[in-house]
Structures are given as structure tokens and as C-alpha cells.
Fold:
Amino acid sequence: MAPRSSKGKSNRGKGEKKKREEKVLVPSLVEITVTTPYETQVILKGVSTDKIIDVKRLLASHADTCHLTNYSLSHQVKGHRLSDNIQVVTLKPCVLRMIPQDYVEESQALTQVRRVLDIVACTTRFFSAASKSSSKPVAVGNGNSAAEGLDMVAIHPTPKLSHFYEFFSIPNVSPPILQLKKVDGEEAGQRRDGDYFELKVKICNGKVIHVVASVKGFFAVGKQFSHNHSIVDLLQNVSNAFAKAYESLMKAFTDRNKFGNLPYGLRTNTWLVPPSVSDSSSTFSPLPTEDENWGGNGGGGLGRNGEDDLRHWAAEFSVLATLQCKTEEERVIRDKKAFLLHNLFIDVSVRRAVGAISKVIGGTNQRTSGTSDFPAGSILLEDRVGDLYVTVKRDVAGLDQNLESSFPLSSKELSERNLLKGITADESVIVHDTMALSTVIVRHCGYTAVINVKGEVKKGMTGLRDIVIDDLPDGGANALNLNSLRVQLQRSHSVGKSGRNQPPQFDSDDLESFRSVVHELVKNNLTKLEEQRETSERPIRWELGSCWIQHLQKKETVVCETPATNGETELSVKGLGTQFKVLKIKNKKSDGEADLEQKNIDHELKELLSEEAFSRLKESGTGLHLKSKEELTKMVYGYYDEIALPRLVADFGSLELSPVDGRTITDFMHIRGLQMRSLGHVAKLAEDLPHIQSLCIHEMITRAFKHLLRAVIASINKNMAELPVAIAASLNFMLGLHGLEGSDEESCLRLQWLQKFLSIKFGWIQKDEFKHLNKVSILRGLCQKVGLELVPRDYDFYSPNPFKSSDVFGLIPVCKHVLCVSSDGRTLLESSKLALDKGKLDDAVNYGTKALAKMIAVCGPYHKNTACAYSLLAVVLYHTGDFNQATIYQQKALDINERELGLDHPDTMKSYGDLSVFYYRLQHIELALKYVNRALFLLHFTCGLSHPNTAATYINVAMMEEGVGNVHLALRYLHEALKCNKRLLGADHIQTAASYHAIAVALSLMEAYSLSVHHEQTTLQILTKKLGSDDLRTQDAAAWLEYFESRAIEQQEAARNGIPKADASIASKGHLSVEDLMDYISSDPDTKGSGVVHRKQRRLTVFPVNDNVASSSDDATYSAASQHGMATWNDVVETNVTKSRIEVNDSNAVVDEVNIETDDTEVHRLNVDNQTVEESALDEGWQEAYSKGAGKKFRQRQPYQRVWLNRNLNGRQDVHQQQYKSSPRPSLSKSSSSLRALKNGEIDDVSTNTVKPQLKSPGTTLASKSLSYKEVALAPPGSQVHRLEKKESLML
Structure:
């Protein structure tokens, strides 16, 4: 479907359009002027959806005001102490004033101290002295040389785990504060009324200053009449050294990122603990945000003091299921209550479960006889607090354990229940399933706790007709951080004062003894696996039934008549497939028998389903209400095997979905109702997709190791101090290199067990894959699944013992529960992605804005579920050409993802990649490089080098390196991306063609036009074969080829005739859109450059990578995983892989959409004509997006960028972006195509002798007298490129 255009307006009622426009306010930039307490002004860049709470967040991210905490905002019209919920757009004028407030509570003064500590933490807490002093080279990617086949080390050194936190570190700045501690007891001076506590502050020059916190602010001891509102103000007044050091730190903040994303406010929420923990021999010191000594949240979350333990949970969950939800307003209210109640229930239950497990562990350690009296799997504790019922069991110390269901149902009954739940699901399916909603499973330290709600509903519901519950504090930020509930394990040795990693101090006999424990577990399990038979039971997830019903509704709407030999008409329902023929045969019975059976079946389902659910199933048009439970089960298994699994792999192959790690592939499968035990089947189907097969193998091995490590932890039942050594021994067995693989007893045992385990559990026959594993990726996934925290060290996987007991820092709980978010928000996010796919940018913006409003209304503006809405809206706005707004929204998403999800979460990786593209488009290339390199750094630890997302990131890096003049380096990145795409996707894939095109343009920047011709010919061949010669991308490639050929001919003629080198102005402009390219080609020599020279320099296409994507769980916000996409040929390269493929055009552009179908994927091509646009003037950093002195003409015809959005159905968003025109807002027009305009002579500055793009013969010999590509690609930066006279064939 084409975008809305002037021709299509008659198809839509004007009243309907007006009504929609009245409801949705399109986002816009807002400048917010704030007068500080110092009578200076700061100008904040906000958006129209911001509220006062967002303004406070912006002030906390500004270098001039980040140290201020206790203040209110006032407005000349709205008055003083503005509420956090006031919309910024309602402030006329948008000018605010910060009013310092007294510290009426001690907690407010502690917040000020904590903020100061947080700001200076980046100078000390995230930098490891060991990583700087260690000189021994260590392999981190994987302990096997067979996998090191990529030539990237020379230009991009392999990332190290020890450098994980350096992105947040500012080590070259002297810490303004060396030490800050509270003075207690006799050392403290005499307190006066209004004084809270005394501090001893050691500043950068070693001087110690005593500071008193009081109601009026802070003052130095002896100067109580000189109060300052903040500690920073006080220290600046009393010490010039501190003032200079603090000023240097703020300058470093600005240099790092002038737009925000300051490196403070972080939490310990990743499987690698901060270096300050590993470098210190002292007890764990939490980061300031979570430090309860300074009023920190201690890990966030609710229910910390037990005030909600006695709520009437059963009654409230029952009331929740009955709340009205017929209208949109009612659903928002219901969803908000459901989210808040369930969020509170999860926090309370997890804390209660961890407390119960700790109680069991404490009692166990006090016994002298161990736990032999309590067999594994037996109930060790049963507790009930109000409606909360807690059961704690010890995990089985073996690999043959099967997790018992937390529901009081057999596996068959649970499967049938889930199937019926799925086929009758609606927008309230989560809220109405009270049993699932009120259950939490927590695994921790070898124990499993299950929390259920069991209460008397009738008793609790007396007078209860509604749910009263408070909103989340801080806008939903600071959700419960499970890492804060860690059990810190005893470390057997400390790190020396020098910071160097000391040699192992543990007893090697202990390691060997526990290694023997691991061997025994593996041998016992191997014996049982030999005897085990495959079970016929197949569990069913409810999402499978939901996806199945959607599939049938799409396929079964058409009822075909097939001729029958008996003259009757037999009705065949499309979409059921051959596996259901047996069901049709069964129906050929006598009318009496059929009617009798039908009544029985109808009665059976009516008994099992509510009247409303049965009615929905009957009205679905699928006929499933006429089937029995057994028939439904058989049919859904057929759908699972023959449709669902192949469709998933097809989406992987088309790059619609692009998982980057075990978490994202799990999310992609679960959202479609697929079981992880089908990973082996997926790996078999993905035989032609090496990266998908590799991810499946990595995930299967990770899950196998998870069972082994859990069994080892469960076997430690007497002394928790033994856990670090036991875990280190297990990791060494699993990931250490024991001579040549398969050459010694231990490696043979490991490989034999893995082969049998994967064969029985996943149906996968392992061969020699273990030799090619990315062991860091397995280690990362294993830590996440088991709840393990490690020290960020460069583990030597070439060693038989890469891990020491001191590397194991702690164990954190791992929780399972359903997710409850806004149903309408999920739907609107999906609608926005679909509209973006179809090129309907107006609709995409409207849906995205409404989705964001819903998510904020339900979850709060800073909850992790809202981040995906910010991210998607950022991508949509980028498509419209509003790069400034897109950047603001993406920064919001990144800040939330870093603090709430984790520093290496797939959504966080996606945000880094997206934001780098937005910065690049705003011409902040150095900043873009910083963030794209961070995304690349994290990709190395997830999917590794051999992945389309990594290849797309290489292209992004190449474009940015080219932007700063490193053309040779950019070419080498492009060469590596090409090799990766050819290896993973095939030599004739469109993504591979995009890589060829990117290299062709990069070579043209070096004036190696003969090589450009050769690569563009390959591009054209692939596109012609895949898309046809009429496709606009194919025509674009033909136009590029014509230009490269003309330049190559000019270059050769100039060399033969000895005339001056031909004008290379177009090469310096990088990538041009087709109209600009043809403008240049067809203009006279005298005018060449006059129309082009003022145009913006064109960079190669860039795509944000993400990897996704998957947002957490049941929410369809997307996800994506990440950013992926495909670029158009005007823009050069196909972007990364993701679900949706939509090209972007800049604002105020006239767009023509052409639908291109390739296999099952429909691609929408947007062609943009130039249109004069005057952009709004933006000051400070935003203004630097345009060259100084550039006028209207400079901005009116910039080459445009296109973006591809990947829609992963698990809630994450993936994006890959390319360059678009920088006009602010697009007006979509169905009829204007740049190529058509070119043919009609409508393009400005094009002479009457316009040259039209023509397809050239692939056999053109212009590239024959050229430099070897590899010599160019591998030449050191700065080398001169010389054309070879000898004819060579280019080998890629």
C-alpha cells in the first residue's frame, strides 16, 4: 500500500482525518530556558511530549546544573513549585526558574551528597588499574585459533573484558574528591538545631575540609553563617584546587557528549561487576545510586520494609480481572492498575523469596550434619504471610532433574489449558489469567522458591470494588535491580596494591577435588542419557495458540470449492495444510453421527471455556470451536512443525528478524510460542544461515552448561564458602582448553556428554562445533541464566584453568514471571512499525506518539517498558528527517536502558547503534564514532564477528571514518563487511550487493574509478537478478555505474593525453542521490560543481545496530533487537538486519513509493525530490549539524538518508539507517519519483542534454587496467593509490 498522497485523499473521509489530527499532537522540538540559582541561563532541548519531570532530568544531565538536587521550578504564569505532571507545551513562555529549597528532611541532604559522589565516580570507579598495567596479551574472543579467521585485528583490536567499563570512565581527569565520609561519634563537632550530620571531605590536593549538612544547606565547620545550597558550591568557594578540578571534570563531560548521557547514575546491573570491586580487597561498595549509606535505593523496587506483605492480593487480583475494559479510557485505567499491582507483587515476592532462601541457607550452615537428612527436591521451608504462600526446595544435585510445574496441574493439563488460552486470547489475556499473574519462581544459590497467591477471595473482597495503589516513584525509574540481592561469595585472595592480577592463591587441591565432582556428575548423567528415551509429551505455550489462530484467520477467510466426483461440492478450508487431511476424512460420516459428535464436542469446549471466550472462538471464523481437545492438540502440533518453525527461519533468512544472542533468540521463539527444545530443529532448518545456526548451537551448549553448573551449585550443601572454588572448577571444565580438543580424557568426556545431551534434549547431532565457539558469548549467557557475577578480567581461554576462585564475585537470583504492560500501547507500537514499513510516515508518527503516551500513562516516563516506545518514535522521526528530535528520544531510551536493563542488554546495544547514526546525521562524527564503537565492542561479546549485524556496524564505522578523512581505513571496514555478508548470506544477496555498492563509492572517493566500475557492475548484476531491471534500486545502480564509467574514461584519457586531472568534485561529495548524480553527469563542464559544490558532503550509509532486539518479554513494543535494515541504492548500502524494511526520507520531501516484492518480503522504496526548505535555527550543539556559513541553498538539496526499521516481534526495535535529506517534515506524494522527474526534465540545474541511466554490459572492461582491490583495501592509511597497467581480475 502506497503512502497517502494528494490523489488518495478522496478515499479517506475528511471528518475522520480531522478527528484523528485533533487527537494526536505531532511531536516537535521545544526550547526550554531555565534560569539557574546563579542568575545564568541554560537552554535545554526538549520535545513537546515532555513534562516538568523531564525538565528536571534534562537539568540533571547538564554540566552546569547536574550537581543541584533540592529545588523547585517556577513559572511566571503557572506559579511556584510546578507539579511534575505539567506539560511543557502549556508553558507560555517556556521560561522557568530554579528555586533552591531548604533541606527539610535529612534524606534530602543525603541525596545531595549522593549526587556529588555519583558525579565524581567516573574518575575512579570504572577504571581498572590492572588492565592498564597488565602487559600479557590474552585472548578473549575464544580459545580456539580456528575461529580467528577474520582480518580485523589490524584495524580493530579484539575487545577485552577488562575494558568493559572504560566507556563510562574519565581516568585522565583528577578526581575533585578523593574521599568523603561521614563523621560520627566523638570526632563529630557539637550539633546545633537544624544540623543533620558532619562530613570529612578530602579534595584533590589532599586538603581535608569538614562540612556540616543542615536545613539551610552546607557550610564549612567554623563558618556556619555562610551556607551554600550544594556541596560543590561550598567546595568551590573554599578551594581553588577543587574548583579547577571540578571545572575540568565538567569539561570532560561536555567533551564526552555535549547532549547528555552523562556517565553517572549507573547501577551494578550486569554480569561483570565494576573494576573498583575487583581491584579492592575490601567488602563490596555499591555504586552511589544504590548506596544505602547515602540514602541510595539499595537496588530499587518497592516493598522493602514489608509494608505491603499483608495486602489482600487474592482479592485484588480477582477484582483486577473484572475491571471494565471496553473503551480505550477504561483499558488505560485497567492496564495501569494491573501494571502497578503486578509490579508491586513481583517486588514483594522476590524479596520474600530471597529472604526465605537466605533463612534456609543460614539454618543449613548452622547444622553440623549437613543436609543429608533432606533429600534433593524435598520442601525445606513453607511459609505464609497474608495471601503470599512461599515454598522453598533444594535443587537436585544432578543433571537429570526436571523442574516441576509451579501450577497444580499435570503437564498434559497445562498444555491443554495453554492451548485454549491461546486460541481465545484477546487484549486482556494476561490480566484475566490470575493463576499465572500471581506466580513467581526464584532460583538462587541452589534453591528454588515458588511464590503463589492463596487467599479467600470472598473474605478479602468485602467492600472491595476497586484497587487503590500509588504510582511508581521517580516516573518508574529505579525498578528492582536483582543484582542488589546478591549473595557475595568469599574470595580466596585479593588483588595486590599494584593493581596487577596476582598469581592464584587458592589451593590447587581444592580445584582438583571439585573438578572430580564435575566429572562424576557428567559421567552419571551420561549413563542416564544412554538409557533415556524421548518423551512423547510436548508442552504448549499459550502464545502458540494465539499465533496459530492469527495464521488461520489470514488463510481461512477464503473458502474454495473443489469439484467432487459425486456431483456434490466439497468445501476445503485453506491454511490447514496436508497434515490435517485425516481430520477431513473423519468428517465424512453420516449426518446423524456427525451431528451427535458435534454436539458432544461443542458441549466439551463450552464446559472448558467461558461463554465470552467460546463466543470469541466461534466468531473467529476458523471453525476450531467444532474440534475436540485432542483434535486441536494434533492440529496445533502440525502448525508448529510445518509452519511456525519454517516461518521463523524464513524471517531469519530474510533479515526480518536478527537475533544477536541467546536472550534475543529466546524472545523471538517464545513470542511465537516456540519451545527452546526446538533449537536443534531450527539449527537444521538454518543450514544456509551460518550465523543463525551458530547462535542456536551456542544457545544449546549454554543451556547444557547451565544444567551442569546448577547441579554443581546444588551439590554444595554444607559450606557456602566452597562455592567460588566449585564454580571456578566447573567453568574451567566447560570453557578451558585441555590440550588439543579431544586429545585428553577431560575434553573427550566433555565432548561426549555434550553430544549426547544435545542429541536427547534438542535433537541436534554435534560434530566439531565446539572448536569454533565464541567462549565469551557462552560465558555471558551462562552467567545470565545461572545468576553469576564475575570480575571483568581478560580470561585466557587457551589455558586449561582460565578461572580462579577470586573471579567469582557473587550469585544473584534468577526470576521467572509473566509481564504485564499496556495492551493498547503494544498494539499502537505494532501499528506504528507497520505504518513505517508501508511508508506511511504520518500514520507512523501518530501511532508512535499515541503509543508513547499510553506507555507513559501506564508505566511511567522512565520505566524500562517505556524505553522501547521512545526508541521506536526516534526511528520514525528520523525517517521524517527530524534528526534532532530523533536524537532526543533515543537519548532518553539509552539512559533508561543503561540504568534499568543492563550495560550490555540487547536494547542497550541497539540504542548505542541508533544514537551513533543520529549523531552522524547531525555531523557530530567523532561523537558518532564513540557510540558506534561501543555498539561494536558489545557485539563482539554477543554474536561475534561473523554476524550480519556486525557487518552492518562495520559499514557504519566505515562511513564515519570516511567522514573524518580516513578513507583507506573505511575501505578496509567495507571489505570486511563484504566478506562477512558473502559468507553468511550468499554472494547474490541484496545485502551483499549493498556492500559492493558501498565499496564502489568509497573507491570513488580515492578516485579509483576503474575499481568502482567493477564493484558497481557486480551490484547491478545482483540487483537485476533479484529485483529486475525495472526496480528503482536497480536503476539507481545503473546510474551510479554510468557515472563511474564516465569518470574512469575521463581519468584514462587524461593520463594518455597528459592533460590535468579531471575535476573530482563529485568524489569529494561522497554519496549523492540519483537526481544530484544525474544533475552532475548531465551538466556542462563549466557548470559542473557549481550546483553540486554547495551540496552537503555525502557519507556512506549508516545503520544503527541493535541487535534486539527484543524488549523484555510479553510486550510487543518491539523490539527489536535491534537495528537492522536495508539501504537503497541512492544511499548506498543495505542496512543492518531487522524485521521491517522501510526507507526513510527527510522532511519536506516529495515521496513516491514503489512496492517491490522479493519472495515473501515486500520492500517499500521512497524516492525523494528536492524541495526548498528553511530549517528552524537551533543553537549550541544542534546548530553545529550544519556547516558554518551555509545558507538556504546548502540545506535545500542535501542528499537524503534512508532508514530501515527491523520489527522483531518480541518487543525490541532494530534499526539500520541510511542518509536522508535533511528537510524537516515530509509531505508524501504518490506521483513524484526522482527518476521520472529526471526523464521529464523536472530536476533543477539539469541541462537539456540530460543523460538517463542506462544498463551497461557487465562485461565492461574499464576495470581491467586497475589496482588490485586487496592492495587498496589493505594499504596502510595515507598510502597513495596507483593504477596498475597490468590487467587483473578482482577476487573478493
Notes: The longest strand covers residues 195-203. The chain is about 45% helix and 10% strand. The mean pLDDT is 75.
